Hints:
Blueprint: E1 3-7, E2 10-12, E3 18-25, E4 34-39, E5 46-51, E6 58-60, E7 68-73, E8 78-83, E9 92-98, E10 111-115
Parallel strand pairs: 2-10
Antiparallel strand pairs: 1-3, 3-8, 4-5, 4-9, 5-6, 7-8, 9-10
Amino acid sequence: QVQFVESxxxxxxxxxxxxxxxxxxxxxxxxxxxxxxxxAPGKERELVAGISITGVVTxxxxxxxxxxxxxxxxxxxxxxxxxxxxxxxxxxxxxCNRDGPFRFSSWGQGTQVTVSS
Length: 117
């Protein structure tokens, strides 16, 4: 079965940094574009960053451009999200999944990111 295990979240002060990891299993990781999503309570889930199959092409929602960097290691079936200059509005549960129309209907537990002083 498909499984995503997100880790690396935590409580940080504004301006701080976190590095999230997503360990994927149950499908051929290297055959799919991937993405990080986030959801705050009462809000719709949004795509934060996406990455192509080989990692050459990346995309970001406008609010995180210049602050977040998505990457992947296909040999390890793992995707990462380096988050710098964090803001309170980045507070959310961050989850990983395949990007776009190939996204799985089930989600992992996500990892909580809280940015607060």
